[in-house]
Give the backbone structure.
Amino acid sequence: MRYAELGKTGINASVISFGGIPIQRVSSEEAVEILFACKDGGINFIDTARLYTDSEEKIGQYFKSHSREDWYVASKSPARDRDGMLKDLAKSIESMACDYIDLYQLHNVSSPQDMERVLGPGGALEALEEAKKQGLIRHIGLTGHKPEILDPGVSSGRFETLQVPFNAMEKQALPLLKKARQKGMGTIAMKPLAGGALTVAAAALDYILNSNWVDVAIPGMQSVAEVQENCSVVDGKVTDKERQQLEKLIAGLGTHFCRRCEYCQPCPKGLNIPAIFLFEGYYSRYNLKEWAMERYSGLPIKASDCSQCGVCESRCPYELPIRQMLKDTAAIMEK
Ligand code: SF4
Ligand code: SF4
């Protein structure tokens, strides 16, 4: 494993670190085993979120039998105001059985209004700055999907890390990553495997690690085998064949693949378009049929509720045929 300084935080994190989304889908025992495998592979940085259902609790379970001091722990909250943020932070600390959290982040700041709110008086950032003075957290980070929305946060100089989607097929955050770097912020690539779409993990992770603008990539891992595969990328050599496979995969996903940027939202009928395509992708491409169907069934508004107005398509930067894709999704997930 290699390690990198996360900006000026003093955190010396493994370049492949642990993204905490997928452990929602496994048992507590399996999650603990996965974290043991991470430790064995040299991973020392965990990133999770309040919103990832029981991910924090499962990490807390692991810390009951393993020293927390061997790890850097990061989480995040969607709260936008001071009180909500303090409440979420207290819950994260309790759930993960930690006395403090190394990096606490604003989760997915996604509109100018959101940004104004978090930075303003009584905003969520005020709470994190207080918490840092009290020693409850060590550093403050910013996360989101839309570079132009995050830009004022990076410019503010009040954040120490930036976490954005960045991978071999999603490079739109590159200018912001460079700006963050120039300001001394740590840079974290979320969705390094494009939400699991880039199945040639070795080549996809290798691309990020050699990009020069990312300190740490945080692929989600839901099995010991995935941990071992991801860790081996750092010391191993990516073959030409794997690079070609990645290129082929990207070309294949290129036109009909939702990147979850959320530009299409809000839908006047209330469809959560990226979530619908996410679950369909897990169902059709990644053999997680039961998991995907369970979550899709829980959506209050489904693909078949689309009125075919087309508003979303005019906003999608990837020019996806969203209406047709929703029809296809309804045929698969609502049969
Ligand atoms: S076409 Fe369907 S999904 Fe798109 S904005 Fe209209 S109702 Fe929403
Ligand atoms: S449908 Fe298009 S705009 Fe909407 S989240 Fe997916 S890629 Fe982004």
